[in-house]
Structure formats: structure tokens, C-alpha cells
Amino acid sequence: MGAAMNSIGKGSPPPVVASVPVTQTNAAVEKEYERLQAEDDFAQGEIARWIAENHAKPKGTEVPEAELEHRVHERLEPVRKSYDDFLSRHPNHVQARLDYGSFLNELHDKPGAKAQWEKVIELEPENSDAYNNLSGIYSAIGPAKKAFEYCSKAIQLSPSNAAYYHNFGDTVYVLRKSAMENYDLNEQQIYAKALGLYSNAFRLDPRNFSFAWDLAQTYYVIKPLPTEEALRSWTNALEIAQGEVDRENVYLHLARIKMLAGRYPEAKAQLNAVTNEHCLELKTRLIRSIQEREKP
Q1: Which of 70, 212, 241, 242 has the maximal Cβ count within 10 Å?
Q2: Residues 6 or more apart in contact with residue 146 via CB below 8 angstroms
Q3: At what angle do helices 176-183 and 187-204 cross, to 10 degrees?
Q4: Going by C-beta distance under 8 Å and a sequence separation of 6 or more, which residues neighbour residue 158?
């Protein structure tokens, strides 16, 4: 025992430990994380295929929603365990926590997602994605004040991110009663605030059809209706519409704005461009509305 103690006693050299360069260690961790992402992507692709196949089945033969959801959860359980295992060994991996939070949020595990994103802020207080994601959680479960605060923080940290403005616009619009109280504004002022946020999102990402669509839709709640601004906004959406259905849906809205402005001949002429079967029901309704308005 004494000899053993002497071998590492005072004055003896420390035991030799093989050193691994930090860059090599980080590369190995990232390689492992790439495999985890691939596992997640593969599972999500498989689930997307199940859902598409189920929707394509004849009516009455589809897999019941509850059964499909159970199958999805079963398929994602190994992925959840892989995330837990990875983070148990690499607890400071910010991107893994961001992605795991999104994974849990899609599984409707909002407390789990919230915990992951709050940990990201602990690790990286300037991480705008975490603030943006948490704003969505607080929009859903409250308090609304936190949702507004975190939306603002995300934009403050990344003022050129179009999606953050769009998310803030959604939050203000959907939670407008809470927003009225939080910002001490009336309903029309809150709608104007949402409009400004959507406008910023579209300005920063002018090829995004969803951003253009939501901006144009918001004009309907502004009183009095700013006809020219609304028409210009729908025209912008038309310019970037990708498919026939999107284009003809925009035609319907252009016609509706013209109808609301009392420009009935223009509205009817606009509706002549609508021929897709998916849009015909709305076209018929608009024609009836125009006819009713044209009566003495």
C-alpha cells in the first residue's frame, strides 16, 4: 500500500492523460448531431407520407385520426429518446435544444418545448430564435404580456428577420384584446399595429406569398377601408402567386375590394378571370352580393 501511495505522492509527475484537440471533439459532436437530425428528418418524412396516403384514401376508408396520431407518437418516441440521450451528454448544445423544442412543440408538448427554449436563453441570452419561439408558446398558454415582450425582444436582436415581424403581427392580431390593454390602444389602433408589422415582414421578404396574403387580408378590418392601399397590396400578392388557385383567389379579393368600394362594373370584370372550380363557389357568392348592392 505504501509503495502504491509513493508512486503518486508529492513531487511525483501527474498521470499522463491523452489530450484531444477541441476542434476534433467539436467535429465529433457535430457529426453525431447530424446523425440525430437525419433520424428526425427521416421519421418526419415517413409521417408526412402516412398523412398524405391517408388523405388520398376514399372517404370512409381513412385511418381514424386518433389511431394515426397514436402511430405518429409511437414513431417519434425513438427520436425523442435520441434527443434526450444526446443532450444528456452535450447539455450546452444550443442548436440541439432549439430543434428539440420544435420537435416537442409539434408533439403538443408545450411545457417541454418551453423548457428547451428557456435553457437556450440561459446558454445564449442573445439568441433571437429562442425568444421568437417562446413568444409562440406564451401566445398559446399565456401570459399574453410575455408573448408581446418576447416578440419585441426577438426583433430587437434580429431586426432584419422578416418572420419575426410576421409572428409579432399574428400575435397582436389574434390576442388583440390583450394587446389593447398592454399597449393602451383601441381596436383600430391595434389593427394598424398588426398591419405595420405585416408590412415590415413583406418589405423584408417581398417574395413570400403568405406574408403578402396576410398583409392584404388585414385591410378588411381597417375602417374606413383604404381602398387603394388594399388593392395595391392584393396586386403585390398577385405578382408573386405561384399557382392558378392562388392567383384566382387573389382575383376574388380584388373583386371584393372593388365591390366594397362601390366599383361594381370593375368588380364584375375582375370576376370574369376566375374559372378554377375551387374558386367558383366564392365567385358565385360575390356575384350575388354585387347584384344585391346594385339594386335601387
Answers
A1: 212
A2: 134, 135, 138
A3: 100
A4: 128, 164
CB within 8 Å of 132: residues ≥ 6 apart: 150, 151, 154, 161, 163, 164, 167
Question: Could you tell me the pTM of the whole model?
Answer: 0.84
CB 147 within 8 A of CB 132: no
- Asked if residue 168 lies in contact with residue 214, where contact means CB atoms within 8 angstroms, the answer is no
At the top level of CATH, the class of 206-296 is mainly alpha
Distances (CA, A) of 238 to 53, 82, 116, 207, 266: 31, 44, 40, 11, 17
In angstroms, the CA 274 to CA 256 distance is 13
Ranges for all domains in the chain classified under CATH 1.25.40.10 = 128-205, 206-296
128-205 has which fold? Answer: 1.25.40
Q: Can you spell out the DSSP letters for the chain?
A: -HHHHHHTSTTSPPPP-----HHHHHHHHHHHHHHHHHHHHHHHHHHHHHHHHHHHSPTT-SPPHHHHHHHHHHHHHHHHHHHHHHHHH-TT-HHHHHHHHHHHHHTT-HHHHHHHHHHHHHH-TT-HHHHHHHHHHHHHHS-HHHHHHHHHHHHHH-TT-HHHHHHHHHHHHHTHHHHHHHHT--HHHHHHHHHHHHHHHHHH-TT-HHHHHHHHHHGGGSSS--HHHHHHHHHHHHHH--SHHHHHHHHHHHHHHHHHTT-HHHHHHHHTT---GGGHHHHHHHHHHHHHHH--
> What cell does 17 get?
492523460
For 161-185, what is each residue's pLDDT tens digit?
999 999 999 999 999 999 999 999 9
Residues 177-214 pLDDT 10s: 999 999 999 999 999 999 999 999 999 999 999 999 99
C-alpha cell of residue 36: 440525430
